[in-house]
């Protein structure tokens, strides 16, 4: 598609449809989880509750249909991620695309056998650490044209958000006793947003530095 305007429009429409659809799906899952937990009081994760609800409502055929849906959804995601990761890392590592696909496939098979509860337990600290810089990158990507040197603004903010995200990740992993006392008293720490105020402060400082450098360059010319 060569028309950038048309491409942008279709991308926005597709994003809105996907966003609304996923919102409805997750709201339904929230409702299901809050009202159906009594079916499996000892459940360790939401998948157990979902299966119990489907089994109780639709019987064995419903469970089979749910398993088929989950298999298709996970297979599509797994194939897409495996291909994308292999294609990306093949550019920087001394391995071929096929070799990386094989390695990633084996690694995924090994990790999947840990069980959903263990995967959730392991992934929460990792996601807690990487979400802040990812959010910063996405938000600041819309401001690229505002800066004289975008990397000098975005990189420091991402670094600060990552550092404070790691603090939250250590807490999520259950090792908060290893952290200094001041880390538990940071603004918004109770909401898991301790990275936000420092990131905003760094953004202000980086923006000021960018403006000063821009004026200095303009004066020099």
Q: Can you characterise this structure?
A:
By secondary structure, the chain is mainly alpha-helical. It has a domain of 106 residues. It is 75% helix and 0% strand. α2 runs antiparallel to α3, α4 runs antiparallel to α5 and α5 runs antiparallel to α6.
Rg calculated over all Cα atoms: 23 Å
Helix content: over 70%
Q: How is the main sheet built?
A: none
Order of helices and strands: HHHHHH
Brief account:
This protein has 221 residues and is mostly helical. 75% of the residues lie in helices and 0% in strands.
Question: What's the topology here?
Answer:
Layout lengths: L3 H33 L9 H44 L7 H16 L3 H25 L9 H23 L23 H25 L1
Task: List the defining traits of the structure above.
221 residues, mainly alpha, 6 helices, 75% helix, 0% strand
């Amino acid at each position: 598609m060569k028309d950038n305007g048309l491409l942008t429009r279709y991308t926005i429409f597709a994003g809105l449809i996907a966003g609304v659809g996923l919102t409805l799906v997750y709201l339904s899952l929230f409702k299901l989880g809050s009202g159906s937990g009594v079916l499996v009081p000892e459940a360790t994760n939401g998948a157990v509750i979902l299966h119990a609800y489907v089994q109780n409502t639709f019987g064995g055929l419903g469970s089979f249909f749910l398993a088929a849906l989950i298999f298709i959804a996970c297979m599509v995601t797994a194939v897409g991620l495996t291909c994308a990761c292999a294609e990306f890392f093949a550019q920087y590592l001394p391995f071929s695309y096929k070799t990386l696909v094989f390695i990633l496939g084996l690694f995924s098979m090994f990790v999947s056998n840990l069980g959903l509860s263990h995967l959730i337990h392991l992934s929460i600290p990792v996601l807690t650490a990487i979400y802040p810089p990812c959010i910063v990158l996405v938000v600041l990507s819309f401001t690229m044209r505002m800066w004289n040197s975008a990397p000098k603004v975005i990189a420091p903010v991402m670094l600060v958000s990552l550092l404070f995200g790691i603090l939250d990740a250590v807490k999520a992993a259950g090792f908060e006793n290893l952290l200094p006392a001041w880390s538990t008293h940071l603004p918004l720490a109770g909401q898991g947003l301790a990275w936000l105020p420092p990131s905003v402060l760094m953004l202000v400082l980086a923006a000021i530095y960018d403006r000063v450098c821009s004026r200095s360059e303009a004066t020099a010319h």
